[in-house]
């Protein structure tokens, strides 16, 4: 049973009435929860979750030139209450690994 595809299909079918509009990039809260769960016991990684940014980076004491592992700029959070409760995030841009987010990112919303 592939519940991820089923959940994606249901969320997508809610359409613009729920704020799921256009050809955009959305991430469900469960993905960020999964990443938090992986990183919480890691000694060299940390989560940045503030304002409209969710990122994973290497801890500063490692003295790595580019200490960002990956990140997402969030345009808005969309609360879904029916048929199940979740939050879906509309992503504005993505920071790939080994790149300084102040210098390079992929814009996913035009």
Report on the structure:
The chain is an alpha+beta fold and 110 residues long. The chain has helices at residues 3-14, 29-39, and strands spanning 26-28, 45-50, 53-58, 68-80, 86-95, 106-107. Strands 1, 2, 3, 4, 5 and 6 form a 6-stranded antiparallel sheet that branches. The mean pLDDT is 83.
Low-confidence stretches: none
Which secondary-structure class do the elements indicate? alpha+beta
Output the number of helix runs.
2
Shape: globular
Radius of gyration: 15 Å
What is the helix/strand order?
Answer: HEHEEEEE
E-strand count: 6
**Percent of residues in helices:** 10-25%
- In percent terms, what proportion of residues is strand? 35-45%
Short characterization:
The protein has two helices and six strands; from the N terminus they run αβαβββββ. It is of the alpha+beta class and 110 residues long.
Element layout with pairings:
Layout: H1 3-14, E1 26-28, H2 29-39, E2 45-50, E3 53-58, E4 68-80, E5 86-95, E6 106-107
Keywords for this entry:
110 residues, alpha+beta, 6-stranded antiparallel beta sheet, 2 helices, 21% helix
